[in-house]
Amino acid sequence: MFSIITCSIDEARFTALHANLSQRLQGHAHEIIRISDAKSLAEGYNRGIAQSRGDRLIFCHDDIEILSEDFAERLDGHLNQYDLVGVAGSNRIIRSEWISAGPPHVFGHVAQVYPPGGFFVAIYAVPARSIPGICAMDGLFFAARREVVEKVRFDAQTFDGFHHYDLDFTFAAHLAGFRLAVVTDIFVFHRSTGNKDDRWKHYARLFHQKYARHLHPMSQRTFAIAAVQVPTKEEAHEVMKQTLAAVRA
């Protein structure tokens, strides 16, 4: 059974997410748990875990859309092989941001809105349908086997806001010995692009203080990530399909 946990105070966003997930999980046992009054994402997710009944737990933002038609089958297959999977992440954590290590250590692809207008697909790297050996992942979407949350919980005491809860949870799972992977055959559209404000920087410092001795001793390098700009969400989906098709070829 799938348990989807999301923190949402926005009725329209939650309604759209609920409809999308209900369609993608049709025919599969599932529950959708909404935390509408979370003090932080970590606190809200922990409360959702306590309410959940499934053996596969999905944590996601309320402004995503699953584009993959066979989402449930793909996710179930990946969770038979790995303990925790997401759509973007890194196999090196060198500072308080998963993308900081840059290529060739970051993986995944995500469709997003392009603020000036239209859409784009951020392509970090798509060398295979699944990339093992991941250390931490982005929190827009990830899914875990129940064994993971029975051993690792979100640190609501340290990360009592809305940033770095994801890096903390996934990195803690990695350090606990769980098998993490980025999967590239689950296509996700994300309506936001993030905001590195002062609160983000505050939690970045807390993450560094908590994990300083576990960070990879590697200097940050200047790099650029490939991005394909398109006028419609449907074309963004096609770009992701074509990227994966090149891998299969």
Q: Shape, please?
A: globular
How many domains? The number is 1
Q: What is the CATH topology assignment?
A: Spore Coat Polysaccharide Biosynthesis Protein SpsA, Chain A
Order of helices and strands: EHEHEEHEEEEEEEHHEEHEH
Report low-confidence residues grouped into runs of 5 or more. Answer: none
Account of the 3D structure:
This protein is an alpha/beta fold and 249 residues long. It has a single domain (2-248), classed as Spore Coat Polysaccharide Biosynthesis Protein SpsA, Chain A (Alpha-Beta Complex). It is built from 7 helices and 14 strands. It has a 7-stranded mixed sheet, sandwiched between helices. Strands 4, 6, 7, 8, 10, 13 and 14 form a 7-stranded mixed sheet that branches. Helix 1 (11-24) links the parallel strand 1 and strand 2 (30-35). The chain is globular and about 45 Å long.
Mind sketching the topology for me?
Elements: E1 2-7, H1 11-24, E2 30-35, H2 41-51, E3 56-60, E4 64-66, H3 71-81, E5 84-86, E6 88-90, E7 106-113, E8 119-125, E9 130-132, E10 136-137, E11 141-145, H4 146-151, H5 165-175, E12 180-183, E13 188-190, H6 198-211, E14 226-230, H7 233-248
Parallel strand pairs: 1-2, 1-3, 5-12, 7-13
Antiparallel strand pairs: 3-11, 4-13, 5-11, 6-7, 6-10, 7-8, 8-14, 9-12
